């Protein structure tokens, strides 16, 4: 299954249950923490994700239902499928990176993620900002890594000329041309991280939706052309029969 679909399924409600209060960004964060800590307990996971014990129980249940974790007396660990999912997510969104406040950030805590090769899917960065705010952050800053350096969406100016410290702070993300950087800002680190993750996931989902719409449109165009071609062929055959 597609990694985004899997994450969405974990964050969704079970057939007979109510909708969970955690979001897709919590699912990704949980996978990261379980992978990093190994045999982590529910209480520790609750503190790390800032979720109540009941919410954590539900999240663990959903992860287990999808075969992504193993639960034992020693704690919670990732299953082979869970490790595979996290590895696939890593090709889309980088690990979070804490960065200091800069003229581009809007909060005391700032966490950046790299979204691989998504330059063409960003408009002006407003969608990422709004997604981060919905996740509890104060906002988000979106940057694009180009051959000329780091630029704000919709511009070509290299912002590192005026803010050289920004590129230094982001260097650990290992950027390539076309990558998008989303920096979540908040009054708490966890909210900044969840804001950045949420904005990144929404960007990826928008890309997938646009790709599906494009493929659907191409399919309809092909069908219409094929139908017209078949109709013309049938009409020509009718004419030929009449001339016999």
Characterization of this structure:
The structure is a single chain. This protein is an alpha+beta fold and 244 residues long. The strands form two sheets. The protein has a five-stranded antiparallel beta sheet with strand order 3-4-7-5-6. Strands 1-2 form a two-stranded antiparallel sheet. It is built from eight helices and seven strands. β5 and β6 form a beta hairpin. The termini are far apart. 51% of the residues lie in helices and 15% in strands. The longest helix has 54 residues. It folds into two domains: 88 residues, Winged helix-like DNA-binding domain superfamily/Winged helix DNA-binding domain (Arc Repressor Mutant, subunit A, Orthogonal Bundle); 107 residues, GAD-like domain (Gyrase A, domain 2, 2-Layer Sandwich), CATH 3.30.1360. α1 packs across α2. The radius of gyration is 23 Å and the shape is flat.
């Amino acid at each position: 299954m597609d990694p985004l679909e899997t994450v969405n399924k974990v964050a969704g409600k079970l057939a007979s249950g109510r909708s969970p209060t955690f979001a897709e960004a919590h699912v990704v964060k949980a996978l990261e923490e379980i992978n990093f800590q190994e045999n982590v307990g529910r209480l520790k996971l609750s503190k790390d994700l800032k979720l109540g014990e009941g919410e954590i129980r539900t999240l663990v249940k959903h992860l287990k239902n999808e075969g992504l974790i193993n639960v034992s007396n020693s704690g919670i660990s990732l299953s082979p499928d869970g490790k595979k999912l996290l590895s696939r997510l890593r090709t889309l969104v980088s690990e979070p990176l804490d960065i200091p406040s800069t003229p581009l950030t809007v909060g005391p805590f700032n966490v950046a993620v790299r979204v691989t090769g998504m330059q063409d899917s960003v408009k002006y960065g407003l969608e990422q900002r709004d997604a981060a705010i919905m996740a509890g952050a104060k906002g988000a800053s979106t940057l694009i890594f180009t051959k000329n350096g780091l630029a704000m969406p919709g511009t070509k100016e290299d912002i590192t000329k005026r803010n050289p410290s920004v590129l230094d702070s982001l260097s650990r993300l290992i950027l390539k041309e076309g990558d998008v950087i989303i920096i979540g800002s908040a009054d708490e680190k966890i909210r900044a991280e969840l804001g950045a993750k949420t904005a990144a996931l929404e960007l990826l989902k928008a890309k997938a939706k646009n790709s599906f719409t494009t493929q659907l449109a191409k399919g309809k165009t092909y069908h219409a052309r094929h139908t017209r071609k078949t109709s013309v062929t049938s009409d020509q055959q009718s004419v030929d029969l009449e001339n016999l």
